Amino acid sequence: MTEKTLIDCHVHLAALPDGDNGCYISPKMLKSPLFRFLLWKHRLSPDKPREANQKYLEDLLGELRASRHVQQAVLLGMDGVYDGTGRLLQDHTDFLISNDYVLKTARTHPNELLAGVSINPQRRDAVEEVHRVAEAGAVLVKVLPNAQQFNPADRKYIPFYRALAERKLPFLSHVGYEFSLIGKDQSVGDPDRLHTALDEGATVIAAHACSYGLMLYEKFIPTFHEFAKRYPNFYADISALTLPNRLRMLLHLRKHPEVQDRLLFGTDYPLSVFHLAAWGRVGPGTMWKMIRTKNRFDRQVEVCRGLGLGFQSIGDIVAQHSR
Ligand SMILES: [Zn+2]
């Protein structure tokens, strides 16, 4: 029996607005195929938001408690889009999972859940929000520059990055193409833009190990290796790397043990975990074990370990950096 000590640093909290959870979803998003699919898969009804939100959480807790390897999950929030003066632009925001909802949910289940809040540095009170969430027990700050429409390299965010460094809150940034955002500026998903945060001493975690997510080629591989050499505060999570559109990065990284101490465990729950990457690359016993493992947290562990991809738990690096 392996120890159940891992933390998954990339688990999405989904919630419908229920009148007082501070969450928002645009009419366009409500109608999107991805959203419809998620509702259907989890058998959620959009007409009963409180029940749907509770059901989503219970499904997550059930799978987490049944996992043999994963003890806790960092629940991620999602901030909105802000204008040049730092005011929320609800019309440009597809969905918003509020920090208060993330913090409250994590507090209700302290053995299983940790708070990964989201702060768009463009918002007027970004620095104050960093201090507020740090006091409230958040363990990291997540952003999605493509969706939140800001450029992480912009030097006007230096005070924000300094506050993250001071509070020892890792900055987890989505990297690569974002399918739900066709037509928007995708260049802000380039990991090279994370250098401003790194130079200011913040711990940066590039999501999905810098994979681009378009299957054809992995254009951010040089940036990943360069940052791993240059910055001791640079990490990447392995979430979603077993998806068919990102597995090239997984197959690349398994051949590079020298960078694997920069990789952090994550799944991208509620997305599926595939064993496709392992076909023909592991023995039949290992393959059979992956197929038999239905728990998504455990399957991510089995597929990555089976392919020789080493990783750490975010708990290890948070402990290191706060020493
Ligand atoms: Zn994600």
List the helices and strands and how they pair.
Layout: E1 6-12, E2 24-25, H1 27-31, H2 33-41, H3 49-66, E3 70-76, E4 95-96, H4 99-108, E5 113-118, H5 126-135, E6 140-143, H6 145-148, H7 158-166, E7 171-173, H8 195-199, E8 204-206, H9 221-230, E9 234-237, H10 247-253, E10 263-264, H11 284-292, H12 296-306, H13 314-321
Parallel strand pairs: 1-3, 3-5, 5-6, 6-7, 7-8, 8-9, 9-10
Antiparallel strand pairs: 2-4
Bound molecules: zinc ion.
The site of zinc ion (ZN) has 4 residues, from β1.
Describe what this molecule looks like in 3D:
The protein is of the alpha/beta class. It has one domain: Alpha-Beta Barrel (TIM Barrel). An eight-stranded parallel sheet has the order 1-3-5-6-7-8-9-10, covered by helices on one side. The longest helix has 18 residues. The protein is globular, with a radius of gyration of 19 Å. It starts with 5 loop residues before the first strand and ends with a helix. Zinc ion binds next to strand 1.
